[in-house]
Amino acid sequence: MPIKHALSVAQVIPQWYVDVLTDALGDECKIDIITGSNVQGNVIKSPEHNAESFKSRLICWYRHLRFMKKWMKDNKNQKYDLIFAISNPPINSYIGLKLKKQFHAPFVYMNWDLYPQVIESSIKNPVVQLACKAWHGWNNRNYPRIDKMLTIGDVMAESMTKPMKNKIPVTVIPVAVDTERLKPINKVDNPFCIEHGLTDKFVILYSGKMGMGHNIEVILEAATLLKEHQDIVFMFIGNGPKYSIVEAYIKRENAANVQLYPLQSEEMFPFSMACGDIGIVTQEASMAHLFMPSKTYSMMACGEAVIGICTDHDDLYRLLENGEFGVAVTEATAEKVAEIILKLHNEGKQLESMKKCARNAALNNYDSKIVWQTYSEVFSNV
To answer: C-alpha 156: how far from its chain's center?
Structure first.
């Protein structure tokens, strides 16, 4: 039976993901999207997400829950053939099951952020740990009721099912990237590089969320070690709790080799993402097995070599371990990171080979035209 009307729930959803879902469900399917993001489509506007702190996120989750309860009450007569939700916020697993019951439709859940594991790894308060134990109990009872569980990495799938008494099948679908929108751009032709004086610089790019699970500090320490190399610039673009750490570092160290900017507009994003020679992705060791940073694929699409600060058992490591388009750094020290940056800076042939391999991997494995077909198969089987 074809899916003619689908409901997608995600407080935060990027446009590329909306496009992937739209392609996967086909032209005959109408998709209602409940989200706080500014995306194109049949959008039902919900409260926006604020990732500045854990407290702000909790407030957003609560507002999202209140909104959804009211929306469900006001839309009892709607008919849907599919419920699809993303784990931003993680209470969408609960909301999705409520929607499944109300509309008698199958529920597919993309578990992009593993909770309560993220909280367990970052907050050691006994009361919080007790709450996480109860949360695990909820997952054990209710995850099996979800018709199809998805996530974005093999290690994440293992980490999700490890605490569960009753194991469930998990389908891994990697993050997709629009390789037509995100692509290599020469610095002299890149308006972002021109505006910020990067046309003759060797740029180390960190772009995206600066959260508690990201080891920003080690990058800043590497910047200190390389400050005498005047053509090397560390570019930080994004938001999150650790934005202020970078801001304070620049003021304290009077760091001429570090630049910091907020998230860029949709129009500027392809240019800001393409400004780097090396893209750097970092995770805290205690939480690395719970994430697969989506920015990695964007950097690859832009033809940037990738340095991944990770462990030897996470999805970022598995992606980079063959070394064709990047380096997996399991020894998370500033000295090691600085050494690799300087080596790639000095050995242009190796860097250019990595850049080319990164772009080809994005085209051949993670392009949205490829990934949407996997989603289409999942939706058809459900």
So the answer is: 13
